[in-house]
Amino acid sequence: MILQLRRLERQPHTFGRAGKLTPSEIHTIDAIGYDGAILMSELASRLGVTKGAITQVVDRLEAKSLVTRSPHPHDSRSSIVSLSEDGKEAYRAHEAVHLEFYNQLRSQLSEQEIKIFEKSIEILNNMLSK
């Protein structure tokens, strides 16, 4: 299962007009959020990566016209990132992929199995974050 997850994490996927996006690109779009505008430093923190790493991803997303970067109104050293219309479409397409996955999962499990699955994922996530 871990090998399959790793394979999925390396594969670019198509999300609307945005075309093929790497997992790091779509996760960055997801972290920015549909209606959000976020400081670059906060975005790096939210994703658990360095400011240099997030700058590289945002540069790629900006070149694809999926995000816009603007100066912070009160701090000239900071930048704010938000989604463009195409970025918002990619965000919605990514949400739809997740929803479809969860719907497929729910169709194959009982309510009790779903609760056990969710609890297992929570425990695994807590263990991995230590």
Automatic annotation (TrEMBL):
Keyword Transmembrane: no
One Pfam assignment: MarR
InterPro entries: HTH_MarR-typ, WH-like_DNA-bd_sf, WH_DNA-bd_sf
Keyword tags: DNA-binding, Transcription, Transcription regulation
Molecular function, one GO term: DNA binding
Cited SUPFAM superfamilies: Winged helix' DNA-binding domain
Descriptive protein name: MarR family transcriptional regulator
Organism, scientific name: Paenibacillus ihbetae
